[in-house]
Write a structure and sequence with these properties.
The protein is mostly helical and 911 residues long. It is 61% helix and 5% strand.
């Protein structure tokens, strides 16, 4: 064929591997087609240059085997239009169809497909060796070859099974993971696949969708794994599927969701970053990725994510690579390709939820995105990009030889020298220096971004619990799941991080046993414990808030357990740090769609806002006075909106008591009176506000401050109020008007004029201070417990005494102000209190109201006295911020002494 032994020796002599090149040329000469141009002419006129072809023959025994067995492949490869330009998917597919002709691609065990694949792999290899194809082009074309092979096999197997069993209506998709998913396949990658079908069902009475699609998956796997003389297709790896080799080959979309949400681990998040639909239903592939986006890209990545990734890398180095190969394995060794991938994928996991631009399966494009988002410094991006390209070139040279999965640089001198020269290094030492430099630039970045030192937490003594064994069992169940409940290893690892932080805060609680019990119930109610644990580990302040809330308020804890989603709904609200006015509450209430026949949206809103206020107080975002104002504004908005929906806009509503002063506390009713003519409308409002449902009630109203109290009409006219206050009202009723405030209705101004006039007339009685003092004594006798110390509200120096003190002085000085603190300021301005007295009085009253708030907040019930049980007193002290009840007692007694002393000096001494 015009190719003498001498010519062959001359051409082989200057190659990287003279014996292999000479043997290849001899075999080509022996099999060369008689009608073809001479072999020397084809070699010398090869479009990419003779050197490129000889380079291929020198470094790739598998390409040599292909060309010598089918010399026509070399003639095909020698066409300029074949080897000089890259090829797109459509062009490749057209070539396959032309090669198959009228025969289906599946004929003779996909012989045409196998031959086509071998030809294309050889073309890609020689273009890379000739340095005419950049890395992205090489990996992209290799991925396209795999895509076409998988799609062709799938379409054949799918059609064959449907013909045999019938056609399911559910969609099916093949998702690529790993390098194929990223469109960055190498010369000998396994192709990682995932099989998904949309839903369960029956193809026929004898075969379910699950059985059908698992048979389909098995048929695809068998086709790829069966050896054939025409050459292999690709090695298919399905071990990245849920439950790995133990799991079914194909799962429904719902089954996938249940697995990943409940049991998915960090390595599976990393794997799914690369997911890409390559065959079957595009819509199902899209739905799969959209459904699992929150799992792949969590809103808040846990701190132990970095530790898990570092541990994965450590296990790879220890168990897979081995110490002797750590510096020679360009994929898994120190500073290798896997470390670059881990750096990029870790940053994708951490930032991907907030930056959709990062949700990119291709490694190099994701690296560029990190630079554009300033998530990696420019010099580090450049170092990683250069290292990645270098190491992938080395990896490809190693794999081109036999298309085997090898990543280790040889240590024998001859193959090492051949590899170095193939990569255009003058010597093996120059190559080694370049490799060490590139890998050395990666390792410091990996160490900076990914922690390799697991955090150690101190053990917490479980003796803080009354029943340590029961507490240990509860903690063990949280980590491992109760009997019959499986918890994924990743979830257990996350809880191991959570446990010491959880116990740290439970240790500070007043009732550790109850707080832990509430937390366990909350986890069970939340459902997706893996996501919850990660959320709490990532947000220690949120964990602190949860634990402190369970300890501070059983009412709030039960509400969170019934509706666990409220925790994130409330705390993620950008306005969480801000109080809500009446107007803002009304605006939100009006958007809920409630009506006269369905007031549950208002009840639900009230519950959510009640919880929001408790959470704000527990976090220290609102002092008690602000809490009282927020509760009052919420109550007013709910009352006004309910009255409006019931069509009762003619009735005027006047607030009294702490509602009037905008000082409503937990567990309080709303003191109101009604003006108008429609008793039925007011009664409907009264009923609607108190009606309990699954959403709770809106807010009970107390109307006993109306004329004649419980014996009087529910609704009175202005004239009735005016007559009653002038002729029958008692002094205590006049005193209650100190806090009157209009809420709704057209008669607010008229009522306030009448109220102020009656209130001022009451002070004309020279004995009114004596009578107020007598009323206070009667309150103590009738409503006190008999144990003055615990009577927070009615005892001497208690809350009521502070209120009677200020209201009596307001009446004497004619200072109309419903709010207690502003009334004290008014009295100070008049000289009734000096600055020191006013300050001490306000501090003492605030302290007593805070004690009351701590007591009431726990069950959201009206509580007027401290507990008498020593253990409950200890809990009160801790919930009030003290180490012991004795310390609490000191400040509590001091506050009451100040109130009592001022009362004695300002009221009793003046009559």
């Amino acid at each position: 064929m015009g190719c003498s032994d001498r010519t062959i020796r001359e051409k082989a002599a200057g190659s990287l591997n003279p014996p292999q090149v000479a043997t290849a040329l001899i075999q080509l000469r022996e099999n060369w087609p008689a009608t073809a141009p001479t072999l020397p002419a084809v070699v010398e006129q090869f479009p990419l240059g003779e050197e490129a072809l000889l380079h291929l023959l020198a470094v790739s025994s598998i390409c040599v085997a292909r060309l010598t067995q089918n010399p026509e492949m070399l003639l095909w490869l020698g066409q300029p239009e074949i080897c000089l330009a890259s090829r797109g998917y459509a062009e490749m597919l057209g070539e396959l169809r032309a090669l198959s002709g009228d025969d289906p691609p599946a004929g003779k065990n996909f012989a045409a497909l196998r031959f086509w694949k071998a030809r294309e792999m050889t073309r890609v290899a020689v273009r890379e060796l000739a340095a005419v194809a950049p890395l992205e082009e090489t990996t992209g074309e290799l991925s396209q070859i795999a895509d076409i092979c998988i799609r062709t096999v799938f379409e054949h197997c799918n059609a064959e099974l449907r013909e045999r069993h019938g056609s399911p209506t559910a969609d099916f998709t093949v998702l690529a993971l790993g390098k194929l998913g990223g469109g960055e396949l190498n010369h000998s990658s396994d192709v990682d696949l995932l099989f998904v079908y949309r839903e369960e069902g029956q193809v026929a009475p004898q075969i379910s969708y699950h059985e059908f699609f698992n048979r389909l998956g098995n048929k695809i796997l068998t086709t790829f794994s069966t050896p054939d003389p025409a050459g292999p297709l690709f090695r298919v790896d399905l071990r990245l599927r849920p439950e790995g080799s133990a799991g079914p080959l194909a799962r429904s979309l719902e089954s996938m969701e249940n697995y990943y949400s409940g049991f998915g681990e960090t390595w599976e998040r990393i794997a799914l970053i690369k997911a890409r639909g390559i065959a079957g239903s595009r819509e199902l592939a899209y739905d799969f990725l959209r459904l699992h986006q929150p799992f792949i890209y969590p809103k808040s990545a846990t701190p132990d994510l970095l530790e898990e990734i570092a541990n994965i890398k450590h296990r790879i180095e220890r168990d897979v690579v081995g110490a002797e190969k750590l510096d020679r394995d360009v994929k898994l060794g120190r500073g290798g390709i896997r470390e670059i991938e881990f750096i990029v994928q870790t940053l994708q996991l951490i930032h991907g939820a907030r930056n959709p631009f990062l949700q990119e399966p291709n490694m190099l494009r994701a690296l560029r995105a990190l630079r554009e988002l300033d998530l990696l410094p420019r010099e580090e991006v450049l170092a990683l990009d250069n290292a990645y390209r270098f190491l992938r070139r080395v990896e490809h040279r190693l794999q081109i030889e036999a298309e085997q999965q090898t990543h280790t640089v040889p240590d024998e001198p001859e193959p090492l020298s051949r590899l170095a020269r193939s990569l255009r290094f003058s010597s093996a030492s120059d190559f080694a220096a370049a490799r060490q430099n590139r890998m050395g630039s990666v390792r410091p970045i990996f160490q900076r971004i990914i922690s390799e030192t697991p955090a150690q937490y101190a053990k917490v003594n479980l003796q803080i619990f009354n029943d340590p064994k029961r507490a240990e069992k509860a903690l063990r169940d949280l980590e491992r799941g109760a009997t019959g409940f499986h918890v994924a290893p990743r979830t257990r690892q996350t809880f191991q991080k959570l446990r010491p932080i959880l116990l740290k805060w439970i240790t500070k609680s007043a009732d550790p046993d109850l707080t832990l019990n509430q937390f366990v119930r909350f986890v069970e109610a939340y459902g997706l414990r893996s996501l919850l644990f990660e959320l709490l580990v990532t947000n220690p302040k949120l964990l602190q808030l949860v634990v402190k809330t369970f300890d501070a308020s059983r009412f709030a804890g039960e509400l969170l357990i019934r509706r666990p989603q409220l925790l994130e709904d409330i705390t993620r609200d950008p306005t969480f740090d801000e109080p809500r006015s009446v107007a803002e509450n009304l605006r939100r209430l009006e958007s809920l769609g409630a009506n006269a026949n369905n007031l549950d949206p208002i009840r639900g809103y009230r519950q959510r806002q009640f919880l929001r206020i408790i959470l704000r107080e527990v976090l220290g975002l609102a002092i008690p006075a602000a809490v009282f104002a927020e509760l009052s504004d919420l109550a007013e908005a709910c009352l006004v909106q309910t009255a409006k929906l019931l069509g009762d806009e003619k009735t005027t509503i006047i607030a009294l008591g702490k509602f009037g002063g905008r000082e409503v506390g937990y567990g309080a009713d709303l003191d109101v009176v009604f003006l108008g003519e429609d008793n039925r409308a007011a009664q409907s409002l009264l009923t609607a506000m108190a009606q309990p449902t699954a959403e709770g009630n809106i807010w009970p109203l107390d109307v006993r401050l109306r004329p004649e109290g419980e014996n009087g009409p529910l609704v009175c006219s202005l004239e009735t109020f005016e007559w009653y206050y002038a002729n029958r009202a008692q002094l205590w009723e006049m005193q209650s008007l100190t806090r009157a405030r209009g809420i709704a209705g057209s008669m607010q101004d008229g009522f306030m004029e009448i109220a102020k006039s009656a209130w001022r007339r009451a002070t004309q009685d020279p004995e009114f201070l004596v009578k107020i003092d007598s009323m206070l004594e009667r309150v103590r006798r009738e409503r006190g417990s008999g144990a003055d110390f615990v009577d927070l509200k009615t005892g001497r120096g208690g809350i009521i005494e502070a209120e009677f003190l200020v209201q009596a002085l307001q009446m004497r000085e004619n200072i109309w102000e419903p709010n207690w603190e502003r009334a004290v300021d008014g009295l100070r301005e008049r000289g009734v209190f000096d600055d020191t007295e006013a300050t001490k009085l306000k501090e003492s009253y605030r302290y007593l109201r805070r004690c009351e708030s701590v007591l009431r907040r726990y069950e959201n019930k009206a509580v007027s006295a401290l507990p008498s049980d020593p253990n409950e007193q200890r809990k009160l002290g801790i919930r009030s911020g003290y180490d012991s009840f004795e310390t609490f007692r000191r400040d509590y007694v001091g506050a009451r002494d100040i109130v009592q002393a001022l009362y004695e000096r300002k009221i009793k001494a003046s009559h």
